[in-house]
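Tutorial, part two.
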Amino acid sequence: MNPDRPVGILAEDAHGVSVARALQRLLPREDVLLVCDDAYAPYASRRPEVVTRRVAELLGRLRGDGAKLLVLASPQGVLDAFAAQVPAPVVLIGLEAPIPQAGAACNGGAVAAVVTSGSVRARVFGQALRRQRGASAIHFEEWPLDAAAIVARIPALVAAGVGALALTSPGLTELRPAIDEAAGGALAVVEAGDVAALRVQRTLRHAGLLSRRKRPGRMIVVSSDPGRAAGRISASAAEARTAANPA
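Running the prediction step on this input gives:
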């Protein structure tokens, strides 16, 4: 396989750009093809079988476009569809709650697993959290994309003995400055996108597929519903190039 092929990322919306950027910070020569499935977002509002079929279809397109590795940057997509994917030569990495890493960052203390409001089905996500190890306790938190609400919530977590935040939804990256300021060093913060980027790096290195090109990597962002995406794209995604992809 050509090591200069792109890494393919499937996300639910333009917040997936944060995962692509985490990857390119770590691997600056890698090209990234990001598909934002705005037409079907949020996956949490869809039936699991619908999400499974949709994820399989879009991952198949990314494989067909020559992706050398795939990242499923959707916590709900991972919960619904990850295990159902047919094994393929192209490795698939899922975006999951980084509980072990957050637990390690606070010496095995209590961790808050944080997602954006409405981005996961709470019961299914809670069941997945109960299977996680590496923390003395796991608190499930759903936060709006509202800096003031987050700043107001963090002191209560510190008072409850939480030692680290496991930021699981890609959308939380844009609020990271407010989170860090409110935490004031009292909470370690671990992002799922950063953990996924490290897994990509290890996988590509092991397979001998790290890009050998000299130029900086490029990012192409494709939406399954550009009209809907235009109303969602935040300042964090504005620099990326968006093109239409037939649903």
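The chain has two domains: 7-95+194-244, 99-192. In part three we will examine how such features are distributed along the chain.
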